[in-house]
Write a structure and sequence with these properties.
Blueprint (H helix, E strand, L loop, with lengths): L4 E4 L5 H9 L3 E4 L5 H7 L5 E4 L7 H6 L5 E4 L9 H6 L3 E4 L5 H16 L2 H9 L17 E5 L3 H12 L3 E5 L5 H6 L3 E2 L2 H7 L2 E4 L13 H5 L5 E5 L8 H9 L3 E6 L18 E3 L8 H21 L13 H7 L2 H13 L8 E8 L7 H12 L10 H7 L3 E7 L7 E9 L2 E10 L2 E7 L2 E5 L4 E8 L4 H11 L4 E8 L5 E8 L5 H8 L4 E8 L1
Helix pairs in contact: 1-12, 5-7, 14-15, 15-16
């Protein structure tokens, strides 16, 4: 087996590099790499790790035929084409926890510096002046902090604000009212933040939904003398609009660590007296750099060796807890998808899945991607990342539903494909930690979805099994196990045989000549 190779573009702390090397990986440390140079070498690597400097655009991703993972040592992903990675079946993961404290602390450092005029006061004193009146500050106690984005960093900032006696309001469409109550943050709309907050701080990723989230009309509705802080990402508002509202004194001050382009091309905003600016230092502490390096390298080792995925942005996280919770059901879901795809001819119009039993108490997203990966693998190379996209590109409709009861089973996954007006279905469960197919088109069976399976549609009449066994014996093909299911005596039935090897079409046709055998398929799992 070829040794796993990892490229680290941008400097990565040695604590992370050691994790990769201890796992037996070959690590090439290159530092920041221009795109043109990256294009020449990317197809040599199984994984690449970047910080914020090196860009991974679509051409690089498409050239990386060997690439399985793109790791971001940090949070922001605007230097990685996530959509292109998804199309190519490449996992994109970040390390959002490692720099949480540093970013939150820097946010509050800027808030305190802004309300107490610390940078300007320091410069004035160093210039030989002693002008205390010019730098009259504002207390934080009793003021209202509006937080836009309540992820890890936003919540940490909320905690710091509470310690200063501030009132805290939050806006985040992905956080429930119950969760807001738990962290003691008032839930309001974006407009509510703008109208009520004395200080507004942003803690959002930059994407198509958040770009320019604070528009000119939002600035217009803010309190007179509001202060703005951004330690998240440039592009969450138009910098020219902020400059306008600072100049007309609607915004009293701003503290910025990030910019639309870095370093800033236009300096008009940061040169204003009431703007504090730092050069993207939110995660620039020794501790944060070590933490994110360790986190992303451990995640890559876990993904490539142990097949567990954590902090992926384009595929559900599948960590040890998920694997333990679902036990054999992830394997079952993938095998059901692969099995069903071989039971039909062509691309179905619809694919539907029903999850029943105790598994419905949990997020079923991991089961979904495993099933779709198995199904799509029949038609083209697929991964857990791009399988949903492949299904969509093939024009296949997809639906899911949950059912509390699984009848006589503790859990049951049923998948159906509609093609040319006919429905084909499989249902499976896990028995003693092993996947089992328990229904095929509604016929009860108990088949192990592993290896070579011969699936026969036949009449429930004497001689079928003997005929099949005779021909397979003559061909020196051993039957490992067999199951037969029928709905009524003497009616249609399904027979499934686990064979020790695949059989060719000549043998299948010979078996199929026997009266009572309607059709046969060879399924390979």
């Amino acid at each position: 087996m070829e040794q796993i190779r990892v490229l680290t573009a941008d400097d990565l702390e040695k604590e992370g590099i050691e994790i990769l090397k201890d796992a037996g990986f070959i690590v090439d440390e290159k530092g920041k790499i221009p795109v043109d140079d990256l294009l020449k070498i990317i197809d040599n690597y199984d994984a690449v790790i970047v910080r914020s400097a090196t860009k991974i655009p679509a051409p690089v991703i498409e050239k990386g035929k060997r690439l399985k993972i793109i790791g971001r040592a940090g949070v922001g992903l605007d230097n990685i084409d996530v959509q292109a990675a998804t199309s190519c079946g490449i996992v994109v993961m970040n390390a959002p926890e490692g720099n949480t404290l540093s970013a939150a602390e820097h946010t509050f450092a800027l808030i305190l510096s802004m309300v107490r005029h610390i940078p300007a006061a320091c410069s004035s004193l160093k210039a030989g002046k002693w002008d205390r009146k010019q730098f009259m500050g504002t207390e934080l106690f009793g003021k209202t902090l509006g937080i836009i984005g309540l992820g890890r960093i936003g919540r940490r900032v909320a905690g710091y604000a509470k310690a200063f006696g501030m009132n805290v309001l939050g806006y985040d469409p992905f956080v429930s009212e119950e969760e807001m109550q738990r962290i003691d943050v008032g839930l309001v709309t974006l407009e509510g933040i703008c109208k009520q907050a004395d200080i507004i701080t942003l803690h959002l990723p930059l994407n198509k939904d958040t770009e320019n989230i604070l528009k000119e009309q939002h600035f217009s509705m803010m309190k007179d003398g509001v202060m703005i802080v951004n330690v998240a990402r440039g592009g969450l508002f138009d910098e020219a609009v902020l400059e306008k509202f600072i100049r007309n004194k609607k915004v009293k001050a701003a503290a910025l660590d990030v910019f639309c382009s870095e370093p800033p091309g236009c300096r008009a905003l940061i040169e204003l007296d009431n703007v504090i600016a730092t050069p993207h230092l939110g995660a620039s502490t020794k501790e944060a750099q070590i933490n994110v390096a360790r986190d992303i390298c451990k995640q890559i080792v876990d993904a490539l060796i142990h097949k567990t995925i954590k902090n992926a942005v384009n595929v559900p996280s599948i960590d040890k807890e998920v694997i333990s919770r679902f036990k054999g059901y992830l394997d079952l879901a993938e095998k059901l998808g692969l099995f069903l795809a071989q039971m039909i001819d062509g691309i179905p119009e619809e694919l539907s899945v029903e999850y029943a039993g105790e598994i419905t108490n949990y997020d079923i997203a991991p089961l979904r991607v495993y099933l779709l990966k198995g199904f799509c693998e029949r038609f083209q190379p697929a991964t857990y990342v791009n399988a949903p996209l492949i299904l969509k590109e093939k024009g296949v409709g997809f639906t899911e539903k949950r059912k509390i009861s699984a009848e006589q089973f503790s859990n049951l996954i049923t998948v159906e494909a509609l093609i040319d007006g006919k429905t084909y279905s499989l249902a499976g469960t896990v028995v003693a930690s092993e996947p089992r197919v328990v229904r095929i088109d509604g016929y009860p069976v108990e088949a192990t979805p592993e290896g070579a399976l011969l699936v026969c549609r036949n009449d429930d009449v004497p001689g079928i099994v003997g005929h099949i066994g005779t021909i397979l014996g003559r061909k020196n093909v051993n039957i490992a196990s067999m199951t037969m299911g029928r709905k009524i005596k003497g009616g249609p039935a399904i027979t499934v045989l686990n064979l020790d090897q695949e059989i060719d079409n000549i043998t299948i046709n010979e078996i199929g000549k026997f009266p009572g055998i309607r059709s046969m398929r060879m399924v390979k799992i």
